[in-house]
Write a structure and sequence with these properties.
Length: about 400
């Protein structure tokens, strides 16, 4: 009965997610665009959750990988390189036009490589020191993008790269509306379904990593790195893998952002973006996939929704209060209240061991189930309650 109820809820949820952009586009493309941006932030938050939530490594420069993926897509799918370098123009007279199935894996690999390069010199750093180094890495990437317009123009500097092509695959151009009979599916709705597919893929990969040996090794490092190393876990490789895997998702999200916007510039990848992504992970629930998704959707959509609240308030005060300042104030108040009421996040992961005690399930065969509120003694070996743990045989 319970499984049937859960299945019905899943089916209703899937239908709602698929029908959402079709309902929103009837009210204008602005709401669908908000949903698209929210999906991109969900992908970013899931990638950062691998680093912060699973491995416990505070990364404040995550937006750098977002920028790397965006600029990679922009360079490969815009006329910038062919207009700047005559040699490339001679090799590709009709432009590069790199297909999606090539540029997405390339963005994943390049961003993952940069993630591993960031992790290599920070292996012995923890806490605040690691946060400061990653913050510096994010700012270095932004400064490079802002200044690589001379002596060789690679990124076009602060002017950014324009005329980025929309996604094309299987004869479908996501930059144009799709007509099916009398029904028209807008471009932003088509991008919604593409981003949704990437988000579902990211969720599946994140979940499989969480329940795998790699995920358990990351969580052991998060809880106690010295104990994890004593148990034989290669903490160096596991940390590098966490940085690389998290960065790869950021690179893919950046590539999708560039194709969706059609324009990228260094101003889109400021420190505040990294802070916002970290806030999404913390606000939703560190290490818990549903909580991270919830936090990303709320913080991505809340600023846009508050436009409809801040505007009337500005009119009521005769324009003395700026609407953008009011929005920031409301967002900050909402985050403070949530952290005071729910310090572990809106949807935190269940505490280890307590779910078994609530259900009355035996932790191992041959052992009685723990009574509600009574934890199993820590000095007993699972499966043999009569034998205490001891260093002596």
């Amino acid at each position: 009965m319970k499984n049937g109820k859960n299945l019905a809820l899943y089916i209703v949820g899937v239908i709602a997610v698929l029908a959402l952009p079709l309902l929103l586009q009837s009210q204008g493309n602005a709401w669908v665009r908000i949903a698209d941006i929210a999906l991109l932030y969900v992908m970013l938050a899931l990638g950062l959750n691998i680093v912060v939530g699973y491995a416990g490594l505070l990364d404040l420069g995550y937006v750098a990988f977002f920028a790397i993926g965006a600029y990679l897509f922009a360079l490969l799918d815009s006329p910038h390189l062919t207009d700047t370098f005559p040699a490339i123009k001679a090799m590709f007279p009709n432009g590069l036009h790199v297909p999606l199935l090539v540029v997405v894996p390339l963005a994943l690999l390049v961003a993952g490589l940069f993630g591993a390069l960031l992790g290599a010199p920070t292996l012995k750093l923890r806490g605040d020191y690691l946060a400061i180094v990653t913050l510096g890495f994010g700012e270095i990437i932004r400064v490079f993008l802002n200044n690589l317009d001379h002596p060789v123009n690679i990124t076009n500097g602060p002017k950014g790269i324009t005329a980025i092509e929309p996604v094309h695959f299987w004869g479908l151009n996501l930059g144009k509306a799709l007509k099916i009979g009398d029904f028209t599916i807008s471009s932003v709705t088509l991008y919604y379904y593409l981003f949704l597919a990437f988000v579902i893929f990211t969720i599946i990969i994140s979940h499989r990593l969480q329940v795998s040996r790699i995920g358990r090794a990351w969580m052991a490092i998060r809880e106690d790195e010295i104990a994890a190393k004593a148990m034989g876990i290669n903490t160096r490789n596991m940390k590098l893998l966490a940085f690389g895997m998290g960065a790869s998702f950021g690179g893919v999200s950046g590539a999708m952002f560039a194709s969706f916007q059609g324009f990228v510039s260094p101003e889109s990848f400021s420190l505040m973006e990294s802070v916002m992504i970290v806030s999404m992970v913390v606000l939703g629930g560190i290490g818990h996939l549903p909580g991270v998704i919830l936090g990303a959707v709320l913080l991505a959509a809340l600023p846009e929704v508050l436009r409809y609240v801040a505007g009337p308030l500005q009119s009521m005060t005769g324009g003395r209060l700026d609407a953008s300042i009011l929005r920031q104030l409301f967002i900050a108040l909402a985050m403070i209240i949530i952290m005071l009421v729910r310090p572990r996040g809106l949807w935190p992961s269940p505490e280890h061991g307590k779910s078994l005690a609530r259900r009355g399930t035996a932790p191992a065969s041959g052992m009685p189930a723990a009574a509600p509120g009574i934890e199993t003694p820590a000095d007993e070996v699972p499966g043999d309650p009569a034998r205490p743990m001891s260093i002596n045989p």
